[in-house]
Amino acid sequence: MALFWVLNCAILGIQCFRLMNKLEKLERTEFAGLKRNVPVPWSVYGPYDNRSDPEATDKEWEKISNIRLGVIALPDSYVEEKGLHKAQRFPWDGSKGVYLINAYHNLHCLLKLRTSLLEFHRGEEQSGSFAHVTHCLDALRQDIKCNADDTPRWSGYGHRITGVDQVRMCRNWDLLDKWPKTFPSYWNKIPSIENINERFSYCPVDSPYADQIIETLGSKHHLGE
After folding, report:
1. pLDDT in tens, 162-198
2. Where are the annotated coiled coils located (predicted)?
3. Alpha helices of the chain — where are they, by DSSP H?
4. CA angle, corner 93, sides to 88 and 96, nearest 5?
């Protein structure tokens, strides 16, 4: 009887361990392994909406305006393992494809919408196309619908403001910034270029692709930048 009880406890312990392990895996994001373990309160009129100092606000947005880190080169073996679509070829290695991490695409779209709004507010000519702006608007709509955040935001600062100082659990953006460095594409946006591969030449001078880049682009490379 005692042995039977011990065996049952052992089996139950194993099942609990497997369940916890499964839940741990489900909680983490599939690619960078991020967890919602960073408490962040909702805020209003913070550094990204400082209405008393628009220049300071612009500087804060400028700090997050570079999305080049989000363009990565994934090996085909990794792509197959994760069930991703095969992408356009990385110019310096045919066994890799070029991908854009979704969070950085969303950030790009947010910045595009902000630029368009500011230009309209200031009476300036629109620098981007209307089609690009509406694409970004729809991209953010799709992500909002996909995430379906069901958090109830409390009210109390007037009928138009909710959720102030209410804490939610977020993923760590700094950790997200680290993950793409495992799969660098050395991409940077350059307007008006003759060779699209020039955008993928922003790599260290000691890069294994350096000779190939110089041979392909000549003096138009951006090694070391």
Report:
1. 998 999 999 999 999 999 999 999 998 877 667 788 8
2. none
3. 2-27, 54-63, 76-82, 102-121, 130-147, 173-178, 210-217
4. 50
pLDDT tens per residue across span 121-148: 999 999 999 999 999 999 999 999 999 9
Nearest-angstrom CA–CA distance, 13 and 8: 8
Task: Kindly report the pTM of this predicted structure.
Answer: 0.83
Q: CA torsion 187→192→195→201, rounded to 10°?
A: -30
Q: Provide the pairing of β-strand 93-100 with 71-75.
A: antiparallel
Which residues on neighbouring strands pair with residue 150, listed in sequence order?
A: none
- β-partners of residue 99 are 72
Report the interhelical angle of 102-121 vs 130-147 (nearest 10°): 130
Burial call 128-152: b when 16+ CB within 10 Å, e when fewer:
eeeeebeebeebeeeeeeeeeeeee
Beta bridge partners of 71: 100
Give the full edge-to-edge strand order of the sheet including 93-100.
71-75, 93-100, 89-90
